[in-house]
Write a structure and sequence with these properties.
Elements (H helix, E strand, L loop, with lengths): L5 H13 L11 E3 L13 E4 L2 H17 L14 E3 L12
Parallel strand pairs: 1-2
Antiparallel strand pairs: 2-3
Length: about 100
């Protein structure tokens, strides 16, 4: 199960556990955001990590550019490369990292 964010993934994990579904034996779970708690959950959660510092710096730079130089500023799409952080929630049982 790929969830839109780590909080949804952790909630899904809890619901599966309540139903007796074993993670990752019966279902693999991957979240998005790589929040701090993802690594500390009962079964550490695999997650997609975005470069948060770079996202923040880029947002501020674009905002300042638009405020300080509105005639020269152009709206553009900035794409960042995410990283998949593989943890136990998506590993096949018996597989190493």
């Amino acid at each position: 199960m790929f969830c839109a964010n780590d909080l949804l993934a952790l909630g899904f994990f809890q619901a599966m556990t309540t139903q007796g579904v074993r993670v990752p034996h019966d279902v693999a779970i991957v979240g998005y955001d790589d929040i701090d708690f993802a690594a500390a959950s009962a079964v550490p959660l695999s997650s997609v990590r975005q470069p948060r510092d770079l996202l923040g710096r880029t947002a501020i730079d674009l905002l300042l550019e638009e405020v300080e130089e509105p005639d020269r500023h152009s709206h553009r799409q900035v794409i960042f490369q995410p990283d998949l952080v593989v943890r136990e929630s998506s590993l096949r049982p018996g597989a190493g990292t």
